[in-house]
Structures are given as structure tokens and as C-alpha cells.
Design goal:
- By secondary structure, the chain is of the alpha/beta class.
- It is built from 15 helices and 14 strands.
- The chain has helices at residues 13-23, 37-48, 67-79, 90-105, 131-134, 149-166, 191-197, 200-208, 228-233, 236-257, 282-295, 313-319, 342-351, 375-387, 398-411; strands at 7-11, 27-30, 60-63, 84-88, 111-116, 142-145, 170-175, 184-188, 264-268, 274-278, 300-305, 307-309, 326-331, 361-365.
- The chain has a 7-stranded mixed sheet with strand order 3-2-4-5-7-6-12, with helices on both faces. The protein has a 5-stranded mixed sheet with strand order 9-11-10-13-14, sandwiched between helices. It has a two-stranded antiparallel sheet with strand order 1-8.
- α1 (13-23) runs parallel beside α6.
- The mean pLDDT is 94.
Length: 412
């Protein structure tokens, strides 16, 4: 497939998602919440201006009374055969969780674009981290991460394409404010190019399964212990195929754009001995650190998590350097009382019984409420894992890593 030439525009992450999501959306059920409101606002503006989506019509935009109402409207609209999208963050996403379970259980291809934001605990914060999206990891929805505005444009399309083809709801997320409001000159999709890579048979199949009095069907039943368990396990086949569907959609996008999107992408030295695993905007800074350290004789790398759910260990192992000696997993969240943060625990499980099962794995927490995480902080992570005691340690925070390095220097 020949690489296409795309128009360039100055956009932030929210603008990018608004543009690409409009193409695949029949209905947008919305409720504004910082920092996601711009996405819904853009979609509303496009509809008011008469822009047509891939289906030759304006998107029907409906503002509900809350995020819970928006999620209910998304669920009902999908049941009626309309491809439906919403946009949210933080507590707004948490209000959608009951309906996300239903959408996943009923294999409905809705897409929720999330500008990931802090959850209110001891205090409210409108800034970004991953507390909200991690609260949804058990719902059954697929989860796809973008690290910058260009990826919001490109992977936003992957979320919709894979939702349609894979018959599953998607949460496409990116860091609130850090990415949602980061202005960049990016390449913009032409809707005709999106039309070329859309699975129209899957679109037609979805519409034909809509609730219709002409061919009635039973939905939303109540089941007892005799069959519920079996029916729940029967969904495994869908999830076993879903990661392959996502990869196929990424390949379609790569064929159009000349990019190299994968469920996990590696950046750094081919013979890296020290690797960080992370997702979100922090990866952009880590790449700069890698360039600096490798230019000065180090052997370090980064694995960027793009497809967080379903989490397929083999895709991770495929990009892990064979030379790796130590791994540091960085989470942008805090789960009090847990034995480890979510991504860290996923990585431990993925490496078990693999060729990397004996590799020490360290854990770090960073950037809550968008707290600045500088190149020096990530350098400290690489250095600390190099000089660490033999037993892997769960770091309390990235700030703690910097503290340990300073303390070691003072002892010298």
C-alpha cells in the first residue's frame, strides 16, 4: 500500500481525537468534564457546520444530564445499531463503568475517548495521570494508549476500526493536559483514506444485529448459576482474537502512513541491558533520555505499551531485547494497599515462565496529578536499577529514586 500524503494542521490531542472520531460516529452522547470537553465540543461544531462522517451524514450529538446518562445513551444507541462514541475523564469515566461492563458483555463496538485524569481522593485535581483508566481494566473493554497528539490522530482511528471489526468496546486514552492540550503540528486523516481501511462487512454485520421489531431478539437476560459461568467463559474466544484484530488494524494504518505502530513498541539500543516499560506522555521524555544515555555509552531502552487490554504477553516478549538484564516498570497511578501497581503486576505475570523470568523487575510510580517528571528523574531510574541491591525493590516513587542516588553520592 502506497504511503499517503496528509494535510498538516496545528492541533492538540483533543482536537485530533475530535477529528478522527467524527468519521466513525453516528451518535455522540456527551457530558463535559475537564480536560476532555474539547473533544465533544469539536464534534458538536463539525455536526453544526454540516460535516459528513464516513456514512454520509452529520453526527447526532446529544448532551445528557451526567456521564452516567451519557454511558446509558451510548449503550442504548449501540443496541439500536448506531456506532456511538463518547468522551470523558476522571470521575466521569467511573460513572460509566456499569455500562462498560454491559457493552463488553454484549460485544458492542462503542468507543470512549479518555483524557486520563486524576481521581479525587484526599483532594480533587483536574490534572492528568492514569488512576481513572486503571479503574476500568477489569470491565472487559479493550484499552489503547496514545502518547502524543499525532498518535491521538493515528491510534484514535485504530480504536474505532478495531472496535468495529473486533465487536468490542474500546477505551482510547491519553494523558490529560499533557497530551490533550499539547499543541503540535500533526498530519491529519483524510476521511477517504479512513474509508479505504474500514471493514464495511463488519459495519453491516453490526447494523444487521440491531434491535428491530421486524426480527425480534432477547437481550439483557437474567441468568442463574446453572448457565452464567459457562456463558461468561464463552466470551474468551472473542478476546483471544481481539489482539490480532488490533494488530491487523495497526498494520492497515501503518500501510497508509508508513508508521510502525504495534501493541508494544520498542525504542533504544538493540543490545539494551536496562529497559523501562511505561505508557503515556512520559514515554516522550524517556526517549530523549535514551538518546542522551546511549550517545554516552549506555545501553538502555524503552518498551511503550499501546494495547493495554487485552494484554498479550507474547507481543511484549517479541520486542524485549534479548540482552536485557534489568527491567523497570513505571506506573502513573497509586493503588494503596496493593502489592504493586497495575502495569507492574501485568509485566511480572507476562515475564513468568518466559526466557526473561529471572530478570529483576523494579517498580516505580511517577507523575500523579501531572507532577513534572524530568529527564533527570528518568536518568535516576536507569542509574538506580544499575547500582541497586541484588533483590528487586518496589520504588515508592520516582522522587525516591532521585533521593537514593543523592544519598549514595553523599556517602562517597
Amino acid at each position: 500500500m502506497a504511503k499517503i500524503n496528509r494535510q498538516t494542521k496545528t492541533m492538540d490531542g483533543n482536537n485530533a481525537v475530535g477529528h478522527v472520531s467524527y468519521a466513525f460516529t453516528d451518535v455522540a452522547a456527551i457530558y463535559p468534564i475537564t480536560p476532555s470537553s474539547v473533544m465533544a465540543d469539536d464534534v458538536d461544531k463539525y455536526a453544526a457546520a454540516g460535516r459528513e462522517n464516513l456514512f454520509g451524514q452529520q453526527v447526532k450529538v446529544t448532551e445528557m444530564q451526567s456521564e452516567a446518562g451519557a454511558a446509558g445513551a451510548v449503550h442504548g444507541s449501540l443496541m439500536a445499531g448506531a456506532l456511538t462514541t463518547t468522551f470523558t475523564a476522571s470521575q466521569g469515566l467511573l460513572l460509566m463503568i456499569p455500562n462498560i461492563y454491559k457493552m463488553a458483555g454484549e460485544f458492542l463496538p462503542g468507543v470512549i475517548h479518555v483524557s486520563a485524569r486524576t481521581l479525587a481522593s484526599h483532594a480533587l485535581s483536574i490534572f492528568g495521570d492514569h488512576q481513572d483508566i486503571y479503574a476500568c481494566r477489569q470491565t472487559g473493554s479493550a484499552m489503547l494508549c496514545s502518547n502524543n497528539p499525532q498518535e491521538c490522530m493515528d491510534l484514535g482511528a485504530v480504536a474505532h476500526l478495531a472496535a468495529i471489526e473486533g465487536k468490542m468496546p474500546f477505551i482510547h486514552f491519553f494523558d490529560g493536559f499533557r497530551t490533550s492540550h499539547e499543541l503540535q503540528k500533526i498530519n491529519v486523516w483524510d476521511y477517504e483514506d479512513l474509508r479505504d481501511i474500514t471493514n464495511w462487512d463488519a459495519v453491516e454485520e453490526f447494523r444487521s444485529n440491531a434491535l428491530n421489531p421486524e426480527h425480534p431478539s432477547t437481550r439483557g437476560t437474567a441468568q442463574n448459576d446453572d448457565i452464567f459461568f459457562q456463558a461468561r467463559e464463552a466470551s474468551n474466544t472473542h478476546y483471544n482474537k481481539l489482539a490480532g484484530v488490533v494488530k491487523n488494524c495497526m498494520d492497515k494504518v501503518n500501510g497508509k502512513l508508513g508508521t510502525d505502530y504495534k501493541p508494544f513498541n520498542y525504542y533504544g539500543a538493540e543490545d539494551a541491558e536496562n529497559v523501562i516499560i511505561a505508557m503515556g506522555s512520559g514515554c516522550e521524555t524517556i526517549e530523549e533520555v535514551i538518546d542522551y544515555l546511549n550517545a554516552n555509552g549506555k545501553k538502555v531502552g524503552l518498551i511503550k505499551v499501546r494495547l493495554y487490554r487485552p494484554f498479550v504477553a507474547q507481543y511484549l516478549l517479541d520486542v524485549m531485547p534479548k540482552t536485557v538484564k534489568k527491567v523497570s516498570v513505571l506506573d502513573r497511578t497509586k493503588e494503596p494497599g496493593s502489592i504493586g501497581e497495575p502495569l507492574y503486576l501485568d509485566i511480572l505475570a507476562a515475564l513468568k515462565d518466559s526466557d526473561f523470568s529471572q530478570i529483576p523487575v523494579y517498580s516505580g510510580r511517577y507523575g500523579l496529578s501531572s507532577k513534572d517528571t524530568t529527564p533527570a528523574d528518568f536518568i535516576a531510574v536507569y542509574k538506580l536499577s544499575l547500582i541497586h541491591i541484588s533483590e528487586p525493590t518496589r520504588l515508592l516513587s520516582i522522587s525516591y529514586a532521585v533521593f537514593c542516588l543523592k544519598k549514595k553520592k553523599k556517602k562517597k
